[in-house]
Amino acid sequence: MKIILDLDTGIDDALALAYALAHPDLDLIGITGTYGNVPVELGVRNALALLELLGADDVPVYTGPTREGFTVAPISAFIHGHNGLGEILLPPPRRTAQGDAVDFLIQSVREHGEELVIVPTGPSTSIAAAMQQDPDFARNARIVMMGGALTVPGNVTPFAEANVFQDPQATDYVFRHAQDLTMVGLDVTLRTLLTTEHTAQWRTTHVGRVYADIVDYYIGAYATTSPHLGGCGLHDPLAVAVAADPSIVECIDLNLRCEENGRTIGDPERLSAPATTRVAVGVDAPRFVDDLMSKLTSLYTSTSAC
Q1: Which of the residues 44, 77, 95, 253 has an alpha carbon 20 to 30 A from that of 224?
Q2: 8 included as an active-site residue
Q3: What is residue 205's DSSP assignment?
Q4: How high is the pLDDT of residue 271?
Q5: Which residues span the domain enclosing 288?
Q6: What is the pLDDT of residue 59?
Q7: Coil, strand, or helix at residue 137?
Q8: Catalytic: which of 8, 167, 187, 284?
């Protein structure tokens, strides 16, 4: 299956990128850059640098739109570091972005159809723009988004998860127009955790050490903001896992809306209409974490040996 990642490349995005590359059932055909954890330009730079680190510098990266007046929230800078990668400095990438993200998304769905899944892990701005520009995109795109919270509180307000909070209007548009959407939100991602005991297993290789340093920063931030969890949430990698294997989560079929305050909730105007959205409410966390660790450890080992 072909996959496009729409990343605001912070730390869990970096894990999602590596997991997509490591997964034998996924063919990463491109990354589109958005804003959120960092500005678009820095997220694109991070994606390019990580692809080079992971020996995948043939994967194209595209620049997406930003939101007028966007600035990185202080909590995002705290959790991901000011550079988005836990203040770990990677060599400047040798490549630059190749073009417009929205155009690439539209063209990719036209070309690959059902063979393609799109995984947005930041605000829905680029996905909504593609839908507005080309109605066929909304009808034909298969989307597995990381964002939202249906049965648990938000992580930036009592109601709102960070990605949908950045652009609730775009999220609402996507909810109302997508025909094949799975929401992987805080309901399940906060049940999948990584600890320093996990990252210590990566420290036998160069690439593994880089990733361990990046993720340990993330785990340290979680120890301050959410000490009850005992680790860091694997938000974005779980969305990639669901794209590859939907059985990793349990879903309910429910048409959603996103309110102006970022609350994701069932849409009362479409409760009896055929559902176009599945909401993940349960997850086989041990199976997912074991799979993530196995695939990433192998990737870091093979890449470091090159």
Answers
A1: 44
A2: yes
A3: S
A4: 87
A5: 2-304
A6: 98
A7: helix
A8: 8
At position 247, the amino acid (one-letter code) is S
pTM over 0.85: yes
How many domains does the chain contain in total?
A: 1
Q: How does pLDDT run across 265-296, given as a tens digit for each residue?
A: 999 999 889 999 999 999 999 999 999 999 99
Beta carbons of 147 and 185 less than 8 angstroms apart = yes
Instruction: Write down the catalytic residue from 12, 235, 236, 284.
Output: 235
CA distance 158 to 153: 5
Terminal CA-CA length for the chain: 26
Q: What is the CATH number of the domain that holds 96?
A: 3.90.245.10
Catalytic residue flag (residue 80): no
**Confidence check: pLDDT of 20 > 70:** yes
Tokens read off for 106: 């539209």
* Residue 252, CA distances (Å) to 67, 129, 140 in order: 31, 27, 21
Q: How confident is the model at residue 247 (pLDDT cuts 50, 70, 90)?
A: very high
| b/e sequence 240-261, b meaning 16+ C-beta within 10 Å | bbbbbeeebbebeebbbbbeee
Q: Each residue of 291-303: pLDDT tens digit?
A: 999 999 999 999 9
- What's the pLDDT at 112? 97
Alpha-carbon distance values, 197 to 54, 204, 279 (Å): 22, 13, 31
Instruction: List the one residue out of 147, 183, 206 whose CA is nearest residue 281.
Output: 183
Q: Mean pLDDT across the stretch 171-178?
A: 98
Model pLDDT, residue 306: 66
- Cα–Cα distance measured from residue 72 to residue 213, given in angstroms and rounded to the nearest whole number: 22
